[in-house]
Amino acid sequence: MNKTDIQAMPAGLAGAGAGGTARPKVTTFATELGRIAAIGLFFAVCLFLFRSDPFILNMMAYTFLFAALSTSWNIIGGFGGQFSLGHGVFFAIGAYTTANLYFHWQVSPWLSLIPGMILASIVAVAVSWPTFRLKGPFFAIATLALNEVAFVLATYFDSVTGGPRGMLLPFKAGLVNMVFTSRLPYAIIMVGFLLISLVVAAYVLRGRLGYYLQAVHLDEDAARAAGIDVLKVKLTGMAISAALTGIGGALFAMYLRFVDPPTVLNIQDIGVKFLLIALIGGVGTLYGPLLGALLIIPLESYLRATLGGTIPGINLLILGGLLVLFALFMRRGIFGALQGAWERYRGARS
Amino acid sequence: MSGFVLSVENLTRRFGGLVAVNDVSFNLRKGDLLSIIGPNGAGKTTMFNLVTGQYPPSAGRVIFNGADISGLRPHARAKLGLGRTFQISKTLTTLTTLENAMVGAFLKRNNLSEAADYAMHVLDMVGLGARAGIKAGTLTLSERRRLEIARALALDCSVLLLDEVMAGLNQKEVESVIDLVRKLNGEGLTIMVIEHNLKVVRAFQSRVIVLDFGRLIADGSPDHVLSDPHVVEAYLGRQHA
Amino acid sequence: MAAFLNIVIVGLLLGGIYGLVSMGLNLIFGVVRIVNFAQGELVMLGMYGAYLSWFLLGLDPYVSALVVVPCLFVLGVIIQRFVLQPLQNEPFMQIFATFGLLILFQNAVLAITRGTGYSVHSELSRIVISVGDINVNLSRLIVLATVIVVAIGANWFLHSTMYGKAVRAVTQDRRSARLMGINVELAFMLTFGVGAALAGLAGVLLAPIYTLSPQIGGNFILAAFAVVVLGGLGSVWGAFFGGFIIGLIEAFAGYYLSPELKHAIWFLVFIAVLIVRPGGLFGIAGAEEVGLREQD
C-alpha cells in the first residue's frame, strides 16, 4: 500500500476507509512479461525441434504472423470494442511501403518497418477521426467500405502498387534484405513479431490506456464521467494497433516476396481473419488471439492442402461456419471458456 | 472571488420547442449538501447534464471554482473535479468492482498499483471493500450505486452530483446510503443530489431547491420549502393547495 | 446532350437495381435493428435459385420468382429464429454472426459450383426498347418498375395495415409493443423473412442481367449500405431515392472519371453523409446510435 498517496488525498477523506480490506491482486505488466517469456521459450523449442521441416516451418510462420496480427487488432477491436473490418488497409500499407522502398531504392526491409508503421498509424488516425463517431455496426460498415476503397485505389494507381499485376520482389538472399533460402529465419522473425505484439498489447492492457479502452468499450458515458477523453483514447488505441499491423504487412510482403491487391486486401482472407481469430480465441483477452491462431491457421492450411484442390472455398466455408457457431455458443472464445472452467473448478474446491 | 465552488447562472436548455431548464440560478459553497427536487419531467436530470457537460446550454453559464466551464466537454469537467452518478447505473459489468473504481482512480494516477490501492481505499469508504474482487455485473442494485459513487470519488472530485441514488432501494439500503452521503459531506465534500423521496430530503436537513417545468420555484430549508404552497401545488396539483 | 441523357438513363436504371437490393436490408435494419452483412449473399442465392429453377424445372427466370421468393422467405425466418434471436442483446456478436453467414453462403456456393460462372436467359431479357438514340433493355426496366411497386407497396403496408402498424410500433419501442400484446419475436421473424424474400426477388430479377458468381453479393452489399446510409436507415423512401442518387453518382463518375473508381466515389459520398447527417437524408436522427442501444 502506498502511504504517501493516501496522505495526498483531500484532508477530510483520508482515513475514512474502515480498516482497509486486503486488496485483490491486479495483474501487472511485469507478470505478463514473465508469461510472454515462457511462451517465447516454448515456441523457441518448437522451432528447434522442427528446424528442418519446411512444411511445418511454413505453417508456424503463418500461425505466428496471424497470431501477432490478431493480437494487434485486439488492442482496438477487443479491448476498445471498435470492430474494425478495415485493418487489411494498414496491413497493405506496411506491405506496399516496404515493397516499394526495397524494389525502387534497395532500402533494407528492417529500416522500412519504421516508415510503414508511421504511415499505417497516420492513415488509421486520419480515417478513424471521422468514423469513430459511428457506433457498432456502422463503424464496421465504414471500415469495410474503407477496405474496398483501398482495393480499388491499389488496383488503379499502378505506379505505386504495380496495379493488378502486383509487385514481385527480387530474390537477393541476405539478412539485410530479409530474404532467406531457408524458412527457419522467417519463422524466427514471425515469433519475434508475435512476442513484440504481445508485449505491446500487455503494456496497453495492464496500464491506464487498457483500462480506459475497456471503459470506452463498455460505456462511453460512464467513461466520460470518469474524465476519459473518449475520442483520444480510441485514436491512441487505433494508432498502436495499426502500427503493429503495418509491421505485419511488411513481414508478409518479404515472406511472399510478392504483393498484389487480392493478396493483401482480400477482406475475407486478411481483414476479417484478424477478428475471426480473435473471436475464436477470445475477444478482448490478452492471449485469446494467440490461441485462436494456433487453432485456425493450421486447420485452414490442412483444409487447403487436402481439400482445396477439389473443393474451392472449403477452408473459408468452414471458417464462416465457425464464426457463426462461436458467436452463438462460445462468445468468450476458447480462452473465455477455459477461464470459466478454471473459475468453476476453483469455486468447487473452496 | 465569490467564494462559491459552483455557480449556475441563468442556465437554460431548449429541446426544440420544449424548455427543459428555464433560467435557473443558484450557488454552492464548499461543503454544501444541496437537494434538488421536483415532479417528473421538471428538468432535474437535464440540469445535471448541463452542469456536467453532457449537453451544451442554450443560454447561461456554469462557473466552477471561479472559471467558466460552460464550453467544456464532460471529461474535461470531470478532470477539474466534477464527479457524477447516473440515474440508471452505468456499471462496467465485465470488469471487477475494483477495476471499475480503478477507471476513476487512473485520472490522477498513472501507476497501476497506485491506482489499485486508491481504488481499494474508496471502495472501503463506500463499504464495498469485501466485494472488490468480483465481477461488477453480479453486484446488487444498491451495490452498483455505491460503486458509481466510489468511481466518482476515485476521481478526487470536489463536487459530487448524485442522480436519484436511492431509487429502487429498500428502506434499509436507503438509510445506509443516506449515512454514506452524510459521512462524505461531513468530511468536506460538496454534494448535490437529485431526489424523489421527500423523506430523504428531510433526513438531510440541508438546503433544497425545487424545479417545476424547468423553473426554480423554491430555495431554502426542507421545512420551509415543503410547506411552500407553490411547491405543494407542483407536487400534488392545484386542488390541494 | 445525348451522352448526358444516356448517362442519366443508365444511372436511373442502376439506381433501380440498388434501390431494390437495399429495400430488404433497410426493412431488416429499420425493424429488427440488425445490420445484415449477408444481405448481398441472399441476393446471390436468389440469382442461383433462378438458375436452378431454370435448369431443373425449365422455368423462365421471371416465373421462378414464385418458387425462389418463398424459399428465401423461409431462409430469412430460419436465420432470424436460430441465429439472430439468440443474439438480440449482443450487437457485436450480431456483426460476427451475419458476417459469418456471408462467408458461409458465398463459399458454399463456390464449393458447389466449383467456381463456374453461369448465366440465365429469359425471352423477355432479349427485348430492347429504343427511343431515339437510347436503347434500354427490358429486363432493366422491369427492375425499375418493380422497385417503384415495392416502395409504394411497403409504404402502404407499413402505414395502412394493422400488421404494418404493429411492425412500426415494434420499431419505435419494443418494450411497449410487447406490453400491448404484440409478439415481438414473431414480428422480427416475419420481417427478416420479408427482407430476405425481397433480396430473393432482387436476385431473380437481376439474374438475366449479370453473370452469376458466388462473389457477386459483394458488388451489391456496399452499394446497398451506401444507399441506406444516404437515404436514411429504416426509411422506405430513403432507400428508394438513395438508390437513384447512388446510381446517378456511379453513372456520372464512371463516364467522367473512371469506371474503376466508382467504389471510391461511393465511399466518399458515404463517409460525407455519415459525418454530416448520420441519420441520412430521410432517416430519423440518431438512428446510427439506436442500432446499438439495448432493448428488451
From TrEMBL, chain B:
Matches recorded under Gene3D superfamilies: P-loop containing nucleotide triphosphate hydrolases
One Pfam family hit: BCA_ABC_TP_C
Organism: Zhengella mangrovi
SUPFAM superfamilies in the record: P-loop containing nucleoside triphosphate hydrolases
Assigned keywords, A-Z: ATP-binding, Nucleotide-binding, Transport
GO MF terms held by the record: ATP binding; ATP hydrolysis activity; L-isoleucine transmembrane transporter activity; L-phenylalanine transmembrane transporter activity; L-valine transmembrane transporter activity
GO biological process terms held by the UniProt record: D-alanine transmembrane transport; L-alanine transport; L-isoleucine import across plasma membrane; L-valine import across plasma membrane
GO cellular component annotations of the record: plasma membrane
Protein's recorded name: ABC transporter ATP-binding protein
InterPro entries according to UniProt: AAA+_ATPase (IPR003593), ABC_AA/LPS_Transport (IPR051120), ABC_transporter-like_ATP-bd (IPR003439), BCA_ABC_TP_C (IPR032823), P-loop_NTPase (IPR027417)
All residue ranges annotated as the ABC transporter domain in the record: 6-238
UniProtKB/TrEMBL annotation, chain C:
GO BP: amino acid transport
CDD domains on file: TM_PBP1_LivH_like (cd06582)
PANTHER family for this protein: AMINO ACID ABC TRANSPORTER PERMEASE PROTEIN (PTHR11795:SF445), BRANCHED-CHAIN AMINO ACID TRANSPORT SYSTEM PERMEASE PROTEIN LIVH (PTHR11795)
Location in or out of the cell: Cell membrane
Membrane topology category: Multi-pass membrane protein
Transmembrane segments: 6-29, 41-57, 63-84, 96-118, 138-158, 179-210, 216-233, 264-287
GO molecular function: transmembrane transporter activity
Protein name per its UniProtKB record: Branched-chain amino acid ABC transporter permease
UniProt cross-references to Pfam families, sorted A to Z: BPD_transp_2
Predominant cellular place of this UniProt entry's protein: membrane
GO cellular component: plasma membrane
Family per similarity comment: Belongs to the binding-protein-dependent transport system permease family. LivHM subfamily.
Keywords: Amino-acid transport, Cell membrane, Membrane, Transmembrane, Transmembrane helix, Transport
Keyword Signal assigned: no
